[in-house]
Amino acid sequence: MTLLEASKRFRIDGEKLRYYEENGLFDCHRQPDGSIDYCEETLKYISLVDLLLKAGLDMESLKAYLSGLGDDRVSNEAQIKILMKQRYALLDDIHDKEKILNQLDYVIHESKKKE
């Protein structure tokens, strides 16, 4: 699958895909003309990488997580720990935003009372 096809399939900008590859998140095969050809195994990683980056996983943790996939020397527990740590960070962020939203609702409510 070409870069353009993968970009459309996963709705990920081609520049992001190049960035992921340049940072060693996955490998792709190059055609003799230099164009990218993503194999099935790489395609499996693309959406996972994008999800984990959107979830806020830093590059170091993401690389640690990905390097453990399919590696019997890395415990499943270690990988779950990486994911759970980020999950808790997301929950903290959500709670912080909920507090701000509640405060904003209060300000709106008070402003409406003045009308």
Short synopsis of the structure:
This protein has 115 residues and is mostly helical. The protein has one domain (3-113): Orthogonal Bundle (Multidrug-efflux Transporter Regulator, Chain: A, Domain 2), CATH 1.10.1660.10. It has five helices and two strands, in the order H-H-E-E-H-H-H.
Strand content: under 5%
> How many β-strand stretches?
2
CATH topological fold name: Multidrug-efflux Transporter Regulator, Chain: A, Domain 2
Tell me, briefly, the overall form: elongated
Radius of gyration: 20 Å
Question: What's the number of helices?
Answer: 5
| Cα separation of the termini | 60 Å
User: How many structural domains in the coordinates?
Assistant: 1
Spatially, the strands of the biggest sheet line up as 1-2
Structural class: mainly alpha
Question: How would you describe this protein?
Answer:
- This protein has 115 residues and is mainly α.
- It has a single domain (3-113), classed as Multidrug-efflux Transporter Regulator, Chain: A, Domain 2.
- It has helices spanning 3-10, 14-22, 40-54, 59-68, 76-113, and strands at residues 29-30, 36-37.
- The protein has a two-stranded antiparallel sheet.
- Strand 1 and strand 2 form a beta hairpin.
- The protein is elongated and about 70 Å long.
Name its key features:
two-stranded antiparallel ribbon; 115 residues; mainly alpha; Multidrug-efflux Transporter Regulator, Chain: A, Domain 2; 5 helices; 2 strands
Secondary-structure map with pairings?
Blueprint: H1 3-10, H2 14-22, E1 29-30, E2 36-37, H3 40-54, H4 59-68, H5 76-113
Antiparallel strand pairs: 1-2
Helix pairs in contact: 4-5
